[in-house]
């Protein structure tokens, strides 16, 4: 059996949104921002790029995610 996994470390854009699918499966929607920072070798200037990810967590893990994920004040 294969395990495909990705680890995203970033900042939440808003609170996790709990929803239920038509087949009564609970899921959570998360908006996560990840930022990459680097230094330009020629100009020695620091640059950064932020990307937004919309994550949908389904099945049993959604009950854990909605409670475990929170925004910092």
Descriptive key words:
73 residues, mainly beta, OB fold (Dihydrolipoamide Acetyltransferase, E2P)
Structure summary, number of beta strands: 4
Number of domains: 1
* CA radius of gyration: 16 Å
Order of helices and strands: EEEEH
Tell me the CATH topology: OB fold (Dihydrolipoamide Acetyltransferase, E2P)
Helix and strand content put the structural class at mainly beta
Mean of all residue-level pLDDT scores: 82
In CATH, the homologous superfamily goes by the name Nucleic acid-binding proteins
Q: Mind telling me the CATH class?
A: Mainly Beta
- Percent helix range: 10-25%
Which stretches of 5+ consecutive residues score pLDDT under 50?
A: none
Could you tell me the strand content as a percent range?
Answer: over 45%
User: Architecture, CATH level 2?
Assistant: Beta Barrel
Global morphology:
elongated
**How many H/I helical runs?**
1
Q: Termini distance?
A: 41 Å
Largest beta-sheet details: 4 strands, antiparallel
Task: Please tell me about this protein's structure.
This protein has a single domain, classed as Nucleic acid-binding proteins (OB fold (Dihydrolipoamide Acetyltransferase, E2P), Beta Barrel), CATH 2.40.50.140. Helix content is 11%, strand content 45%. Strands 1, 2, 3 and 4 form a 4-stranded antiparallel β-sheet that branches. It is elongated, with a radius of gyration of 16 Å. The relative contact order is 0.27. The model has no long low-confidence stretch (mean pLDDT 82).
